[in-house]
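Q: A reviewer asked whether we had any structural model of the full assembly, not just the individual parts. We don't, so I'm hoping you can provide one. Inputs are below.
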Amino acid sequence: MIRAYGNFLSGINAFQRSLEQTADNLANVNTVAYKRSEVSFSDLLYCRLQEKRLPVAPLPPASDPQAGLGVRPAAVVPFLEQGPLAESTRPLDLAIEGDGFFRIIQSDGAEAFTRQGNFSVDSDGRLITAAGDYLDTPFTLLGMRLETVAIGPDGAVLAVNEAGEIESLGVVPLYRFVNTAGLFKDGGGRHLATEASGAPVAGVPQENGFGTLRQYYLEGSNVNLGLDMIQLMTAQRALQANARGLVTADELQALTLQVRA
Amino acid sequence: MRGLYLAEGAMLVQQARLSLIGNNLANLNTVGYKRDDVAQTSFGEWMLYQRGGGATPGVSRTLPAALGSAAHNVAVQETVTNFAPGPLQYTGRNLDLALSGDCYFQVQKEDGFLYTRNGRFFIDDAGFLVTAEGYPVWGVDGPLLLGTEQVEIDPDGTVYTGDIVQGRLRLVYFTPEAEPLKAGDNYFRVREAAVSADGGEGRVWASFVEGSNTDLVREMTSMIQVRRSYEAAQKVMITYDSLLQKAANDLGSLY
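A: Here is a predicted structure for the entire assembly that you could use as a starting point for your response.
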């Protein structure tokens, strides 16, 4: 049995995984506040060639030749850089410029974190995300004129009520994590806190390193077409090279069998 | 019969080569990977002499005539890791670090230190700089505690948050007797005393990673060589088999 089969197979699997991730990135080139990810690979363990029953010279320098066993996806690395800010005309579009997440509550009461700031208002005056989760704020917009809502860079929210008076409603809080890369991506722009990310730390925009809020802006996707096209090309060619290797391993096998044709 | 075993040896060595090519190609996109090559050797040579002594005119009858030399067999002598630097690839991620110069990052596993050129690091929930496997990365004074992802890293390895110096990465150099062995997961293992923190010319480049140094064209070419060498050895084996067939079946028969 040719031992190289496993190595080429692991390569094909790895680059397939890489292609899937690149496709995911490219599909989200226009998703609000999307953060691209890359698959990172590690080589597998090395074993002694002798253990693979391959001939090793018992002569000095006997450095005990090793052969690798292939590759595995080691991590999906999220790229957390700021996405570009795009202007909008909606008063409830909010972008975070810098560090921080909005805390949202899902319909089942579970908390999640997002940077997608394209909010709207439900019948109770709560700010809700496109997915229907509501933003965790100490106030509601019930009885306010929506077109007058003003949100400052420090998160302070002002609005004019039905009586025509300006009211100061409170501050939109932000949250951050020791290890943002450890958050679990739950789809729909939601991120869940995990043991790896650490517990959320609450704060106020523009204080202690938290980011700035920008009303009338949305954070774009940070997918970089150039980088992802390069990923696509390298993964595709690498996959082909490994497939070619698999064919070669098979040809060696066939040659062995032809010895007694 | 000797020729059969020689041909088999040649085929097995080619299988070993293909196995290494397979590993190199599978790790075409593995950060900090260093490719392996096979060095093959023959087990000494010996002289073949004509049976029954020399019939060559002018040569004493007591000395058999030499026919030429033959190898006992072939085998893999060693696998050689090529430490040539890989290409630096821009990623834009602040915790992606590439090295230039012959230096390595030092990380701590439970059972000892490992060394790597893979600078794709993370912050763990306690704020330490760690690898993808969660092993702490060492600074000059032990595991590097940063507490935040918002850091900038200078070419000399100094880590800043704003203007505050958080620490400095420890870069180590292998001494000639290090004999680094691959330990999987992009790590190298060396003998404890065989690293030094001096050497000087190592630099850290943030927002870059060092790609694999596998050369696709080279590996594909080697693969063709393997394929043809294997085929040649196979032909030798078949030829030898037909010689043996003649010896066994035809030599003793009258018709």
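A: Points you may want to mention in the reply: Residues 36 and 140 of chain A are 33 Å apart (CA to CA). Chain A has a mean pLDDT of 89.
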